[in-house]
Write a structure and sequence with these properties.
By secondary structure, this protein is α+β, with helices and mostly antiparallel strands. The chain folds into four domains: about 1-235, no CATH class; about 255-465, no CATH class; about 475-650, no CATH class; about 660-855, no CATH class. The two termini are about 55 Å apart.
């Protein structure tokens, strides 16, 4: 009955009851409004196949009027300065004054500056997130249209109009241009279910074990929620201060911050040491001396287990796993959480000898990794649930007391000093960006053997400084993306717009002109970008990038359709999205997985495509890399499709220190060193294999397995070069060979005496001058663009761009290693996708042990 992540469920269910806007609507007023709404819906449902105009006239605008908007609406206003390419169905105004001011504007696009909310209406019960099957003409995807209209309104009003209502009469959505993900973070209320209309029955997610009385109370609550949130008063500042929506957003952020902080403290002060000690004590192959190597193995196993549990908590609370239906409902982690909470509430102890919960956890992990048709779960494994990821977890069996304690602490917000009972945490409302708070704690804690024989935390206050890990503030992430990637989006749209304008006056057949435009399709070209965060941490920046770019891709699809005026233009990406959806649904049908088409809307599939093709990242901390994968997997989870293979995009290494391949080979030759150019040749040969991995969609587990196999081929070819280059990079920084004998170039006089050609003699003279320049400037890294790439293997950058500043801006950092000065230029990765044959290993990450010895 309710969807979307614009407001937290905690606020919508409990927090809203304390707001004045909620309290002002008494029971009598609510009954009056509900009776009027029921009358309107009775009329539309009795109409045979109502079209958009009928739905607007008989339901949408009358219902808006009922909840406070009256006649404060202008219809079919163009937001374009020229033409009518941006025409939302309605423009709502806050009051009579704003309405009158808007009507006085001669240019319709100027009227938006007086408006407060857009309305985009569709015919009764039309699907909102996909093209309508069987439509006579291309109408576009409604939700994508709303993204485009909001961007346009935000632009022409300088950020004053940022709200939009999208509805088909039955489903009502509220969008906010300021959301982290506009396409995903909306609020939707299904009034068909809320008012119990014919053909709008509840599903298992709506019921959730509720009694009939509880379901009826929920319906009453949600109708009142609709009246408050979609009513005019919610959009208008109260007493000149915040609007109700702004208050709701603030309260949601406060709740999320509080719960995330509490969760992070519990995880690493209580849960993490508890897991580490239990794993070490339960391991039949434990090192009795508890040496540092074994403690590191335990630490990794504890973190992997923690990541797996967090993954399942998120997935189940967001209805990505079928925990409400089928056999899985009896085995799911949600059921374990309920059982543990009930025993805790009844003060029933958990015997240390019992081990019933651990096999259930392992069954869940195994089902996610390998798939289980009986439980209705497709194979999702992307590496997190591999048996080889943490061998200790395959050897142990934790008792119920430990598992129950861990599950309860991760599932409830509880202050032992407060009399308030523990409150259930719904992970649906926690953004995956909040996992970064967990990562910060990881850097500051290792493991040690305590005096009492337990394994506990060894605090390392300098952990962050030692690893060089610092975090980009939330408020800067959006600005960085806008400055670094935004111009590339504008560039592609501008190029398509110019070509479409020329094609509109072309005499060639329409089909020929459309085919030519598809080569410049902006949505498709945005997926050719390669963007890298060279210090990704837990993936906070990359998660936000996926959101932003997915919104941009969806908006570009709608924008392109509007730009082309001489025919119906459909982005070729639409066909690819539909093909992916069709394949997943086909697999689901053959395996009887409980997947519905609404879980595979365009926005879900586009986020997955962005993750697979665009996102790159590097971090020195291997567990940070794993956590970043978990965050990105959760954020781009596509029901029915396996977790994308990310090992080739998210790498562990040092993004600051490395070597360019060609200059390093030249240096070795200058030193007279023996070096096999065959290694470089092997690397160039596997570039095609890397291109094949990039092109794989990972729509089924076979494709993921194929990607892994191909990447092993790449690794085998590049690892020898990587190891040698790491050694040479360390030498460069430490200057070991500075005083070593060098191969003297042959004197030019000897070349003349040997009757060498003029070309050879000139080249020798030039080479001698270049060598002298290198000695003078002492530059340890040289390359065709003097640009430092950030991972191995990568593709050369087709456009230099930094993600930590504005477009075309490069930042130099200087440091000292011995007597040498090192100048590094940041570059955004990577990649000339159109020229895979030019691919070569660019930067070899320096092992931390060597990096630390250089005094970094």
């Amino acid at each position: 009955m309710i969807q979307g992540g614009l407001f937290t469920r905690d606020f919508l269910e409990e927090g809203i009851k304390g707001q004045a806007a909620w309290q002002q609507i008494d029971d009598a007023e609510l009954r009056r409004l509900k009776d009027m709404a029921v009358s309107l819906f009775a009329k539309i449902t009795s109409t045979k196949s109502p079209n958009e105009a009928v739905t607007e006239k008989d339901l949408i605008y009358p219902l808006l009027s009922t909840i406070g908007w009256g006649d404060l609406v202008l219809v079919q206003q163009s937001a374009s300065k020229k033409g009518r390419s941006d025409v939302p169905d309605g423009l709502l105004f806050a009051d009579e004054t704003a309405f009158a001011n808007g009507r006085r504007e001669l240019d319709s696009w100027l009227r938006f500056r007086h408006g407060i909310c857009l309305v985009e209406s569709k015919k009764w019960n039309r699907v909102l997130d996909r093209e309508e099957k069987g439509a006579k003409s291309h109408e576009g995807v409604p939700s994508t249209q709303m993204l485009r209209y909001l961007r346009r309104a935000d632009d022409i009003t300088s950020g004053k109009l940022r709200w939009g209502i999208l509805t088909n009469g039955r489903h009502w959505r509220l969008y906010h241009q300021g959301a982290l993900s506009v396409s995903e973070d909306f609020l939707e209320i299904d009034l068909g279910k809320v008012l119990d209309l014919p053909g709008c029955g509840l599903d298992l997610i709506d019921v959730r074990g509720r009694t009939p009385a509880e379901i009826e109370a929920l319906r009453e609550h949600l109708f009142k929620l609709f009246v408050v949130i979609f009513g005019r008063d919610a959009f208008v500042p109260q007493d000149g201060r915040l609007t109700f929506h702004q208050i709701a957003l603030q309260e949601g952020r406060k709740w999320e911050t509080r719960v995330a902080r509490d969760l992070a403290d519990k995880v690493f002060d209580e849960v993490f040491p508890l897991l580490a000690d239990a794993l070490a004590k339960s391991d039949p192959q434990r090192d009795k001396a508890f040496g540092s190597a074994y403690l590191n193995e335990v630490r990794q196993a504890a973190l992997i287990l923690l990541y797996r549990i967090l993954f399942v908590l998120y997935a189940e609370d967001r209805n990505l796993l079928p925990d409400e239906s089928g056999l899985y409902a009896d085995y799911c982690l949600t059921r374990v959480r309920q059982e543990v909470a009930e025993r805790k509430s009844a003060r029933k102890p958990f015997p240390a000898s019992a081990k019933t919960y651990w096999p259930r956890l392992q069954s869940i992990f195994r089902a996610i990794a390998e798939g289980d048709d009986d439980l209705g779960i497709p194979p999702y494994n992307g590496g997190l649930f591999d048996k080889d990821a943490a061998p200790i977890l395959e050897r142990v069996a934790l008792n119920d007391a430990v598992v129950a304690d861990v599950v309860f602490r991760l599932s409830h917000e509880h202050d032992p000093k407060s009399a308030r009972p523990p409150k259930y945490i719904n992970y649906r409302d926690l953004s995956v960006q909040q996992l970064g708070s967990v990562y910060e704690q990881i850097l500051e804690h290792g493991l040690r053997l305590n005096d009492d024989g337990t394994v506990g935390i060894a605090a390392d206050a300098s952990g962050r400084k030692t690893s060089g890990s610092y975090y980009t503030p939330e408020e800067l992430v959006g600005l960085i993306i806008e400055r670094a990637v935004g111009p590339l989006v504008d560039e592609r749209l501008s190029c398509f717009r110019e070509k479409a304008a020329a094609a509109a006056h072309d005499a060639r057949p329409i089909r020929s002109r459309l085919d030519e435009l598809t080569d410049l399709d902006p949505a498709s070209r945005l997926l050719d970008l390669k963007v890298c965060d060279p210090a990704m941490g837990s993936g906070h920046f990359l998660v936000s990038l996926v959101d932003w770019l997915a919104d941009s891709v969806l908006a570009a699809m709608a924008e392109a359709a509007a730009i082309v005026t001489f025919a119906d233009y459909v982005s070729p990406l639409a066909g690819r999205i539909d093909a992916i959806r069709t394949k997943i649904l086909g697999e689901a049908k053959s395996h009887k997985w409980p997947i519905v088409e609404a879980q595979l809307d365009d926005r879900h599939i586009v986020r997955r495509m962005v993750l697979k093709r665009v996102v790159y990242g590097v971090d020195k901390n291997p567990m940070a890399v794993e956590l970043a994968k978990v965050a990105l997997w959760l954020h781009s989870f596509t029901v029915g499709a396996p977790l994308s293979f990310l090992d080739h995009h998210l790498r562990c290494g040092d993004s600051v220190v490395g070597a360019w391949a060609r200059p390093m080979v030249d240096k070795l030759e200058g030193l007279g060193a023996l070096f096999s150019n065959g290694l470089i040749t092997r690397v160039e040969q596997v570039s095609k294999v890397m291109a094949q991995i990039e092109g794989t969609t990972d729509n089924d587990i076979a494709e993921v397995t194929e990607s892994k196999s191909k990447f092993r081929i790449v690794a085998e070819a590049t690892d020898p070069v990587a190891s040698f280059f790491s050694l040479m990079t360390a030498e460069t920084l430490m200057g070991v060979l500075d005083a070593a004998p060098r191969k003297e170039p042959e004197p030019i006089e000897h070349l003349i005496e040997a009757n060498k050609s003029e070309k050879v003699i000139k080249k020798a003279a030039t080479d001698r001058q270049a060598s002298s320049a290198q000695l003078v400037y002492g530059s340890p890294l040289t390359g065709p663009s003097a640009t430092q790439s950030v991972s191995r293997p990568v593709r050369p950058a087709s456009r230099r761009r930094t993600l930590r500043g504005s477009s075309r801006f490069s930042k130099r950092r200087k440091g000292r290693a011995g007597s040498r000065s090192c100048s590094i230029t940041w570059a955004s990765m990577p990649a000339d996708a159109s020229s895979p044959t030019t691919w070569s290993p660019k930067c070899v990450p320096l092992p931390p042990s060597i990096a630390s010895s250089t005094g970094r």
